[in-house]
Amino acid sequence: MTVLQIDLETYSSVDLKTAGVHRYVEAPDFEILLFGFAFDDEPVTVVDLTAFEDIPKDVMDALRSSTVTKTAFNAAFERTAIAKHFGIECDPLHWRCTAVHALTLGLPGYLEGVAEVLKLEAQKDAKGKALIKYFSVPCKPTKTNGGRTRNYPHHAPDKWEDYKAYNRQDIVV
């Protein structure tokens, strides 16, 4: 069976940890910024939705297919975000959560911890938390940032490239 591995980077003004995934994706400003994916052992592709790149047709078809297993670390988040963003049903029967799988094996419930414990060659990118804070959550308006409440890719193109690399690395790990 074909496996589609997915990792998303998103934005919402609602705090995910305090409000939960459903309130997070219901925010009027919720959006998927980056859509990373790989079929089976193929190379990872990152689609930059902020640059109006399109999700390939085979990926959209796979998201709807009952013959493709979709996997993600914390799959409930990806499944809920994809359903909201694209307006498609994401049947949980066709999704596998690698975080749940890790927990059933007595491993940590967070990707960085799993990679460390298993001493994987590929490790989670340490810059990720700062990049998430910069692009995926609102920022405080200051004189330095011109009073904006959100950082966009054009505000820091180098950081944006790092964010895309971070998204890619999360699929590799």
Automatic annotation (TrEMBL):
Gene3D superfamilies: Ribonuclease H-like superfamily/Ribonuclease H. It comes from the Bacteria. One of its GO terms (molecular function) is nucleic acid binding. This is DNA polymerase.
